[in-house]
From TrEMBL:
Keyword Metal-binding attached: yes
InterPro entries recorded: Ig_E-set, MoCF_OxRdtse_dimer, Mopterin_OxRdtase_euk, OxRdtase_Mopterin-bd_dom, OxRdtase_Mopterin-bd_sf
Record's protein name: Sulfite oxidase
Organism listed in the record: Symbiodinium pilosum (Dinoflagellate)
Cofactor(s) the protein needs: Mo-molybdopterin
GO CC entries: mitochondrion
EC number assigned by the record: 1.8.3.1
Keywords: Metal-binding, Molybdenum, Oxidoreductase
Pfam families linked: Mo-co_dimer (PF03404), Oxidored_molyb (PF00174)
Sequence ranges assigned to domain Moybdenum cofactor oxidoreductase dimerisation in this UniProt record: 71-197
Gene Ontology BP, a term: sulfur compound metabolic process
Length: 199
């Protein structure tokens, strides 16, 4: 892993790597591999562990969980690493850095950053990870943006937002509420980091 022998906690001696797919399919400490035309037994593949439901589903009564497809590929996602939530900046050009990823090997084609709740956006520079093969982008793409703090936000508290676009031109939804689900999975709405500007 990362050029070193695989450590025990990450699955040594043998781990399955299923690129572009949710972590749970990357089984650690593999003992046996069986080829089958049937989905694997057990809660992690057939049960509700990695299944999505409508926000209206608050309990499983009357739902045939086995009929709902399990998650494999994931939706496009991005996160801000810097600045940290609650931090103060004195810069008039805010340096924002983070990473983005999408399922199924779909690469990241664009990341947008906003400090005014999405009224205006600055497109980030894509860095390490941007040159992965088409539909073979298994790793994160790092990005950075320089966002000018307008006079009306100087000395104020505001929220830094980001959202990514993948090679399918899918993007992230604005709010978490319509994504709410029983298992709390796939919440890929805009990442929000509240900060303060000091004059
Ligand atoms: N044998 C085994 N493999 C497993 C798990 C497990 O509980 N047992 N957890 C899975 C889940 S849910 C995730 S998210 C990843 C986490 O891998 P990591 O610890 O290398 O990040 O391992 C997966 N592989
Ligand atoms: Mo997981």
């Amino acid at each position: 892993m990362n050029g070193e022998p695989l450590p025990n906690e990450h699955g040594a001696p043998v781990r399955v790597i299923v690129p572009g797919v949710v972590g749970v399919r990357n089984v650690k400490w593999v003992g046996r591999v069986v080829a089958s035309t049937e989905e694997a037994e057990g809660p992690w593949q057939r049960g509700l562990a990695y299944k999505g439901f409508s926000p209206m589903v608050k309990e499983l009564q009357g739902i045939d969980v086995e009929k709902i497809p399990s998650m494999h590929e994931l939706p496009v996602q991005s996160a801000i690493v810097s600045p940290k939530p609650g931090s103060t900046t004195e810069l008039d050009d805010l340096e924002v850095r983070g990473f983005a990823w999408s399922g199924g090997g779909r690469g990241i084609v664009r990341v947008d950053v906003s400090i005014d709740e999405g009224k205006t956006w600055v497109t980030a520079e894509l860095a390490d990870g941007k040159d992965q093969g088409y539909n073979r982008a298994w790793a994160w793409t790092f990005w950075e943006a320089s966002v000018p703090v307008p006079p009306e936000l100087q000395g104020k508290e505001f929220t830094v937002l980001c959202r990514a676009v993948d090679s399918a031109y899918s993007t992230q939804p604005e709010r978490p509420e319509p994504l709410w689900n029983l298992r709390g999975l796939n919440c890929n709405c805009w990442h929000r980091v509240p900060i303060r500007h000091a004059e």
